[in-house]
């Protein structure tokens, strides 16, 4: 096992981290969007034929909107947490990320 040492996050390493995190987020957001899309189909009321967009907005109940907002926020937060967890397990050729706990002095 190699000795661990701290190192600077150079621009190249920062780009590697950003790209790695970004594609993981895109992959994880696909199921979140599919699930919320299906749930939206069942939760949101269907407008009557011939209803104008203004009438749809004016008559939209807040309950289903709140439920969908909550589910989308929860799914997005969960996807972020999982993508960061996934990212922390990644090993690049010259570095990897670690979480370091800070011990508080008891004086």
Features:
107 residues; mainly alpha
C-alpha end-to-end distance: 35 Å
The largest β sheet comes out as: none
Residue-averaged pLDDT, rounded? 87
Supply Rg.
22 Å
Helicity level, as a percent range?
Answer: 55-70%
Question: Can you tell me the overall shape?
Answer: elongated
Strand residue percentage? under 5%
Structural class by SSE content: mainly alpha
Supply the number of helical segments: 3
Order of helix and strand elements from N to C terminus: HHH
Any low-confidence stretches, pLDDT <50, length ≥5? none
Number of strands: 0
List the helices and strands and how they pair.
Elements: H1 11-43, H2 53-59, H3 62-88
Quick overview:
This protein is mainly alpha-helical. It contains three helices and no strands.
Question: In words, what does this structure look like?
Answer:
The protein has 107 residues and is mainly α. Helix content is 63%, strand content 0%. It is built from 3 helices and no strands. The longest helix has 33 residues, at 11-43. The mean pLDDT is 87.
């Amino acid at each position: 096992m190699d000795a661990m040492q701290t190192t600077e996050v150079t621009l190249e390493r920062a780009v590697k981290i950003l790209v790695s995190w970004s594609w993981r987020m895109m992959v994880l957001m696909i199921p979140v969007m599919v699930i919320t899309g299906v749930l939206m189909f069942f939760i949101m009321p269907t407008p009557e034929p011939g209803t104008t967009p203004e009438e749809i907005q004016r008559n939209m109940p807040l309950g289903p909107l709140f439920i969908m907002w909550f589910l989308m926020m929860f799914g997005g937060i969960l996807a972020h947490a999982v993508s960061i967890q996934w990212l922390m397990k990644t090993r690049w050729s010259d570095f990897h990320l670690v979480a370091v706990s800070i011990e508080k002095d008891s004086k």
